Amino acid sequence: MTSEPPAGVLRTPDECFAGLPAYAFDPHYVSVTAPGLDPVRMHYLDEGPADGPVALLLHGQPTWSYLYRSVVPVLAAAGIRVIAPDHIGYGRSDKPAVATDYTFARHIAWLQGLVVSLDLRDVTLVAQDWGGPIGFSVLAAEPSRFARVVAANTILHTASPDLADRLTWAVHGLGESRVVLEEGLVDYLLHTQRAPELRPSDFLAAATASTLPPEVLAAYDAPYPSPAYTAGLRQMIALLPLTRNDVGARIGRRTMRALEEWDRPFVTAYSDGDPATRGWESVFQERVPGARGQEHVTIAGAGHFLQEDAGPELARVVARVMTTT
């Protein structure tokens, strides 16, 4: 797929991805669409046996499929076909230059387009950070294509009052017209909207338990050779639902209702060092029927980006879930 991107869409030059440490994977692309926009090119990794059971690995903000570089080989060696896409605006995928072109619904549509175009079936969804809200919503739209879920440091913000006192980082309604928000979350959102430049490496360095080498931090910045390429990074944070009236919260509530009917295996694999998502593992365990009786995991010594701190361990959890459930 070598055609030029549509007007108003940026495409990171291939040379930006040359020589990235531990990322010697062949690129693959599929054309995806979302309402109101021209088709764009979505990048994904496709590793392991073509006829193996499928693990769909979803990243969040501000990472890309590079996040899973130590997870992919372990799963592929176990006979699993690994599909790891870059959301539109991230990694090797196309990047609309106008921030408001990115919406929650469009991210869902773009990922659904990949799943349908590749005709993925019997999928084990592995979702971290924004990979959860987007991936769970695709699961809700295409339930027959999914067989299992591994939720890893992810969320599904609904801003519902029943989340009160459940989450370390509070996001929930109060009474008829008030909301309770974690101060750190608000600070984070405001910083990302006001900062003149966003570098993914700054967030990776701050939210991992281990110290990442400079070349690894640089790899996370590689898809964004200038600030013009970062509209998707900035806008995804602005899409975070903070009130019950937010369109993202309405999508989240609809998706949660679908998860409350999900009786296939649903396993949580959260780290012990991520206050931003702490509490969601227990919410999912209680509300998703498929989570009952499962062997849920707490990964010790890892931060928000547990793939960096404990990638092979997370991979072994996924492989176990796929072979024993």
Identify the strand order in the major beta sheet. Answer: 2-3-5-4-7-8-11-12
CATH structural architecture: 3-Layer(aba) Sandwich
- The helix tally amounts to 10
Largest sheet: 8 strands, mixed
**Structural domain tally:** 1
Beta fraction of the residues? 15-25%
Description:
- The chain is α/β, with parallel strands linked by helices and 325 residues long.
- The chain has a single domain (9-324), classed as Rossmann fold (3-Layer(aba) Sandwich).
- Helices cover 33% and strands 18% of the residues.
- It contains 10 helices and 12 strands.
- It has an 8-stranded mixed beta sheet with strand order 2-3-5-4-7-8-11-12, sandwiched between helices. A two-stranded antiparallel sheet has the order 1-6.
- Helix 3 packs across helix 8 (247-259).
- The longest helix has 19 residues, at 306-324.
- The radius of gyration is 18 Å and the shape is globular.
- The chain starts with 8 loop residues before the first strand and ends with a helix.
- The mean pLDDT is 97.
- This is Alpha/beta fold hydrolase.
- Pfam families: Abhydrolase_1.
- Keywords: Hydrolase.
- GO terms for molecular function: hydrolase activity.
- Residues 56-192 form the AB hydrolase-1 domain.
